[in-house]
């Protein structure tokens, strides 16, 4: 990898859950066709890791969104984080040391820091036991009584309450993406 290349992870919102289907081979090809290098996908849920000399994550995300729309007709929000940002996210987790079950720890990645007034109004749905910490463009989530599968504290809930795009990954995936984007 060239000295002037940074490793990134692109996180696609809502891929291969519900009706939006995307083959990971197509995703790798499209990202490589944009000129990015060492393109790899992680799992089947819209995680792609690559190297690029481009330093603007918003520009990278828009390029991937555009090629998905132009080539495959998919309108999918894309959020991009650098390897350094993913390392900082895992270090900053206020819940990682108190929970050894990675299915109960998640990170919601946001398209932008939400307005402070909206963060102040954010609450968990009635009757749900969820701890959360909003930290800039991420929300650290802890579900002490179970995983993400049955909660209403979802991407849709966060987007409605905070007014920004959200996509959530479990702790195992966040750590794997951090490792895949390291150095």
Tell me what you see in this structure.
This protein has 183 residues and is an alpha+beta fold. The protein has two domains: 6-82, 2-Layer Sandwich (Alpha-Beta Plaits); 86-181, Alpha-Beta Plaits (2-Layer Sandwich). Helices cover 33% and strands 25% of the residues. The chain contains six helices and eight strands, in the order βαββαβαβαββαβα. It has helices at 24-33, 57-72, 83-92, 116-121, 155-162, 171-181; strands at 6-12, 37-42, 47-52, 78-82, 105-110, 131-135, 138-142, 166-170. The strands form two sheets. The chain has a four-stranded antiparallel sheet, with helices on both faces. A hairpin with a 4-residue loop joins strand 2 (37-42) and strand 3 (47-52). Helix 3 packs antiparallel against helix 6 (171-181). The protein starts with 5 loop residues before the first strand and ends with a helix.
Sheet with the most strands?
A: 4 strands, antiparallel
The total strand number stands at 8
Mean pLDDT value: 92
Order of helices and strands: EHEEHEHEHEEHEH
Shape: globular
* Amount of helix: 25-40%
Rg, Å, rounded: 16 Å
Q: SS-based structural class?
A: alpha+beta
CATH fold-level label of the largest domain? Alpha-Beta Plaits
Task: Produce a short descriptive summary.
With 183 residues, the protein is α+β, with helices and mostly antiparallel strands. It has 6 helices and 8 strands.
Layout of secondary structure:
Blueprint: E1 6-12, H1 24-33, E2 37-42, E3 47-52, H2 57-72, E4 78-82, H3 83-92, E5 105-110, H4 116-121, E6 131-135, E7 138-142, H5 155-162, E8 166-170, H6 171-181
Antiparallel strand pairs: 1-3, 1-4, 2-3, 5-7, 5-8, 6-7
Helix pairs in contact: 3-6
């Amino acid at each position: 990898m060239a000295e002037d290349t940074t490793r990134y992870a692109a996180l696609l919102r809502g891929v291969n859950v519900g009706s939006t289907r995307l083959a990971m081979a197509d995703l790798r090809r499209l990202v490589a066709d944009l000129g990015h290098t060492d393109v790899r996908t992680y799992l089947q849920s819209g995680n792609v890791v690559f190297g690029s000399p481009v330093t603007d994550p918003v520009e990278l995300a828009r390029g991937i969104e555009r090629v998905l729309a132009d080539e495959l007709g998919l309108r999918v929000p894309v959020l991009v984080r650098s390897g350094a940002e993913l390392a900082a996210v895992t270090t900053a987790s206020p819940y990682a040391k108190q929970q050894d079950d990675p299915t109960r720890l998640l990170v919601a990645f946001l398209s932008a820091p939400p307005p402070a007034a909206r963060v102040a109004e954010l609450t968990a749905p009635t009757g749900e036991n969820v701890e959360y910490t909003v930290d800039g463009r991420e929300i650290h989530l802890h579900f002490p009584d179970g995983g993400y599968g049955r909660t209403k504290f979802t991407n849709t809930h966060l987007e409605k309450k905070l007014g920004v795009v959200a996509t959530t990954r479990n702790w195992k995936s966040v750590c794997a993406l951090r490792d895949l984007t390291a150095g």
